[in-house]
Hints:
The structure is a homodimer.
Chain A: H1 3-14, H2 16-27, H3 39-56, E1 59-64, E2 71-76, E3 84-90, E4 110-112, E5 115-117, H4 125-140, E6 147-153, H5 163-169, H6 171-174, E7 178-181, E8 193-198, E9 200-209, E10 215-216, H7 217-220, H8 227-236, H9 259-266, H10 272-279, H11 292-297, E11 301-310, E12 319-320, E13 323-332, H12 338-352, E14 358-367, E15 370-371, H13 377-390, E16 395-399, H14 404-413, E17 417-419, E18 435-437, H15 438-455, H16 460-463
Amino acid sequence: MTAPLENVLTTLRSKKEEYLEGLKACLRIPSISTLAENRKDMYHMADWLQEAMRQAGLENVAAMDTPGLPVIYGDWLHAPGKPTVLVYGHYDVQPVDPLDEWLSPPFGAEVRDDHIYARGASDMKGQIFAQLMAVEAWMAEGGCPVNLKYLIEGEEEIGSTHLDAFIQEHTDLLQCDIVLNCDAMIHSAARPSINYALRGLAYFELEICTAQKDMHSGMFGGAVHNPIHVLTDLLSGMHDSRGHITLPGFYDHVPLLEEEERTLLAEAPYDDADFLKTSGAFALHGEEGYTTLERLGARPSLDVNGIWGGFQGEGAKTVLPARAGAKLSMRLIPGQILEEVEKQLRAYIEQAIPEGCEWTVTCQSLGPGSVMNWKSPYMQAAVEAVSEVFGVKPFLRREGASVPVVRLLQERLGVDSIMLGFGQPDDGIHGPNEKQSLSVLFQGMESYARFMDRVGTIDPAQSHD
Amino acid sequence: MTAPLENVLTTLRSKKEEYLEGLKACLRIPSISTLAENRKDMYHMADWLQEAMRQAGLENVAAMDTPGLPVIYGDWLHAPGKPTVLVYGHYDVQPVDPLDEWLSPPFGAEVRDDHIYARGASDMKGQIFAQLMAVEAWMAEGGCPVNLKYLIEGEEEIGSTHLDAFIQEHTDLLQCDIVLNCDAMIHSAARPSINYALRGLAYFELEICTAQKDMHSGMFGGAVHNPIHVLTDLLSGMHDSRGHITLPGFYDHVPLLEEEERTLLAEAPYDDADFLKTSGAFALHGEEGYTTLERLGARPSLDVNGIWGGFQGEGAKTVLPARAGAKLSMRLIPGQILEEVEKQLRAYIEQAIPEGCEWTVTCQSLGPGSVMNWKSPYMQAAVEAVSEVFGVKPFLRREGASVPVVRLLQERLGVDSIMLGFGQPDDGIHGPNEKQSLSVLFQGMESYARFMDRVGTIDPAQSHD
């Protein structure tokens, strides 16, 4: 180990209490991008982040305008001849409902045992914070082994609406050799993992309207359309009895899973019982003919994420509502054509909906999936850094969730991303009681420090082929 | 016309402005029985009603305890040898959501053109108020032509939970020859109607739970049960493609509709286009093989009254929820065995739900339907009173909605009910912008006054057979 890296690791190990206080401050800002009432918190968070980046030693730190929430940029470009790493992250978080299921306030950042509980602890303020602390520790040794740029957006949880235009407007500024995307997780501390593929996401709101006004179910029930019935019929028909999605043409561009990759995926240290325990679900269920890991990473899925209509209060109200709606989303496999999914959904509804029912479909988010070169020297650097910190070689896998920016950066800048983040599957991201293991986060800081060290040995001119 | 009746009608016609002020005061009390936060308003309403009854000249007016909200009683028993009429009504109202669809505040009692807009205007404070004004006008002439008793409950909109026990405890007090049930409506002012049959109601809440906690749809979607999918599959399967309800045994005790009654029902001045306009619905839909009027009055129906699960806010949240639920209710035909409906629902769910899903069914309301003797002298009195006021003979029909108290009073006191009230189908009861036509309500006052006059000519000893 070189002396600077050893010093960096010593620093990281000695300042844990200080880091914990900083992390708490970061997690206590309720930066929910989807809710209008949290708009001022978003700007507060953007300010906090810029200050933390300056403290870490980054330069040219600025909140850069978009038509929506600002992108936070910063850089440090004093490692001539070394690769330039673009660090990607987001400073926004998901809403916190159902609030009454949180055991401590979602923006309280309470520590219980090894975990810190807060919205954004795992997804993904914790990861950004860990990466910045690793940079700060390197800077204390006189500088980083690589050049750094930062692209931290504020709209990831609402579909990164303005990110593509921003990247296109600033392709020169963002030029780099590799992206370090910290919006990621490992399988577990005992068996860490790194993802080489991500699913895309298409998210829609569907509303059904069958009348001009709510009606009394006794006076009209049984003689007119009930929009909840129309909606449940439509949603129920979107899967067949074998778990296939029935939207016309939906599987046209889903690549067949090759035997070689099925074998690779089957090598993951996967266990049904562990998976169920992690998820909190009572039973496995999915498309016939595929393993759970294949269903999660290599096959598309369709989920209703929300549904509403009529009376939801206490007691009994005999209303026959005029309208009902649902949020539904598809996880897409690289190869599926994003723009066609809305057409397929509309075609399905048109053929399935009874006459005399009005409907609207609104696309609320659309992000592509991607597959990356897992044999690149940058991936090897990540594998080695994680191996050294966790004491075991990480396995490679396909991820079920979506990180559309990975594909965007492939398309716009021509660079792959290394998905390196230290959340875990049972962190409860997007749900109540989101948490982050503190010991794993500290291991994450060391991994980031070692990753930069390893990347510093790569010749960027030779890494492109 | 006898002099007293003529004087009563003159009184009713001369005091409309005064009545309107009284009606507004009554409608401004938010007596929502299902919501805990409106509990004090319920008692306020009970006090207001007792005062109005005393003002009308009734005696022994009192709020009588039940384990829930009080029943308001009153009587006037100074017409020896004349029939005793038990007036039934309720002083509670439905909740007001969706609040943002009301054009004026639901408890503002705003008058626009011929209508007064308020929750409870039509269902049914307006009707009780009209009946009391008719009594008051008779009292001003020295007394009523009939003996009167009042049974005004505060829990009709929450299933009349304590009414049966109350009636059983007070059968002597409530003895009567006929019930005048004001919780009713006419087809229209041009073609008034009186109901002789009512559907029953069974109301349930169903909840599905597939996991211990909400999950991220990207991490788990496609590999575990989504409770919204389970719920929509269950609800969708409750009707077959012909509009039949699929709960096992559901039609076992539904009486066949005889040809004679189909002919009677077909005589109603019914028109699809008018019906659609009144309902506000865009299209008719129902059980194959039956007309709309048959579907509404003579066939059972099943409606989902509310549904919820997952994310219902603005924007996109990729949650895979742990639970989802629905309110569903069945309108039942006299003959169907109330207690069996829950068993049928449970049997359906047991056979249809996938393994690994937890579910609960809670019965929230259970009320029987009833059919009455439409040839009795009391029914004739009602037909004649309405004929004289509206200038056209009312037609008789089966009603789709439920008024469980009608069956209760048949069972416990052995008396039929005359359903005489002056709401109309397009009043929007239970929905936003509930309204009552003021001109029709004033015609209702006259109808009640004439009804009492006619009933005063019936020999109660001969009316029982």
